[in-house]
Amino acid sequence: MNQIAPDILDRLRAVVGDKGVIADPAEMRPYLTEWRDLWHGVSPLILRPASTEEVAEIVRLCAETGTKLVPQGGNTSLCGGSVPFEGGDEIVLSLSRMHAVREIDLENDTITVEAGCILQDVQQAAEEAGRLFPMRIAAEGSCQIGGNLSTNAGGTAVLRYGNMRDLVLGLEVVLPDGRIWHGLRGLRKDNTGYDLKQLFIGAEGTLGIVTAAVLKLYPRPAAVETAFMAVPDVAAAVAMLGTAKALSGNQVTTFELVPRLGLDMVLRHVADTHDPLEGRHDWYVLMELSAGRDTGALKETMEAILVEGYEQGRVLDATMAASEAQSQALWKLRESMSEAQKYEGGSIKHDVSVPVSRMAAFIAEASEYVVDLIPGTRIVAFGHIGDGNVHFNPSQPPEMDKQAFLDRWDEVGHRVYEKVRKFGGSISAEHGLGRLKRDEIVQYKDPVEMELMRRIKRSLDPQNIMNPGKVLNPEG
């Protein structure tokens, strides 16, 4: 195991003081363990700076000494991008103490926050100011804005508002040499050259450390309508998306696919959940509309969408939430899908995207391909198909040993990714590459793209000290 010299560790400790250092093994463990427990890293200490200046001083010291850094937000990554490797020669830099809301500009509809702000707290600050910050993901109570930016997080409202790339106007970033890029501009138009902020969004901390961001705010919706509908197949679900867009304009906020298999898992294992429809159907859609005025027109629009779906044979049954509690109950069914899968044994996760028009064919062919490989595999395909993102998660056959199934992760993944490539998709829709897909991406991304990414990395981080070994393999 490689060791960082004691004098370097002492200098790093001095930057943040006693309050900014975690060195006790028990207290360090949450920072070193990946959320799904796939990786357990090693580090001599955790640094928790309280300001951008402290972050910059840490990075300058690491650049001077060639010390490797792993920036970390809420550590909710699903691809191993936020924990160190096992060599013990990386410092974990947690942004959790940097959680200030620096400014809310209501006339500009922006909020400026530090990277350690928990997403839910940003949502709450916006709400208290009479605005909406629309990012919604399952980990919003623990994930941090810096991590959301570094992985270009998506979530359930991308269809209406876009992902993090679309929600950011400006960034403050500490570069790998310790300089600070002061890019906290709240401009929606700035045509003065390269859009540098986009380099750091989705880079998973490999090009610099995001310390603050200017985020877009939106009017709070005064009317929200939620419906849960049964559809005959995925093709019908995609067709209903077109119907909903045509009849509502820009009011479709969420369009989530739910398979019967996944719903059954939720009903079996998650408390206080109930089947919202009387009959059993193979596929469902959770759809939400929102509008700025509560005039009753939105309810009429939702009803018109469902009626047209019935008439076209694309909706078999449906229910509309009559209250906030009923809406939350419907959402719980969708949001509990991953949790429920854990109780059913091993599952192999794929966060992929394809063009919406090819979603039905992809799910059908990929499902057949995987079941042919491991007969009895239960395909749980769910998620944000309104923006082309599906969580394609095969669950083990009930009679199969869990570890035996998980040992075939790469084999199953290869089959899924082959179908993703066939349909012009991406092997990572919103979780990033991290460590999990770092080597896999080389097989599916254009060689010119890979070379451009490596050039950018070498240009900004020639010493390879920023989250090394994530996103890009340093060996090529």
Automatic annotation (TrEMBL):
Entries under PROSITE patterns matching the protein: FAD_PCMH
InterPro entries with a match to the protein in the record: FAD-bd_oxidored_4_C (IPR004113), FAD-bd_PCMH (IPR016166), FAD-bd_PCMH-like_sf (IPR036318), FAD-bd_PCMH_sub1 (IPR016167), FAD-bd_PCMH_sub2 (IPR016169), FAD-linked_Oxase-like_C (IPR016164), FAD-oxidored/transferase_4 (IPR051264), Oxid_FAD_bind_N (IPR006094)
Keyword field contains Flavoprotein: yes
Keywords: FAD, Flavoprotein
Pfam assignment, any one: FAD-oxidase_C
Residue ranges constituting the FAD-binding PCMH-type domain according to the UniProt record: 39-220
Superkingdom classification of source: Bacteria
Similarity section: Belongs to the FAD-binding oxidoreductase/transferase type 4 family.
Protein name (database record): FAD-binding oxidoreductase
Protein species of origin: Marinibaculum pumilum
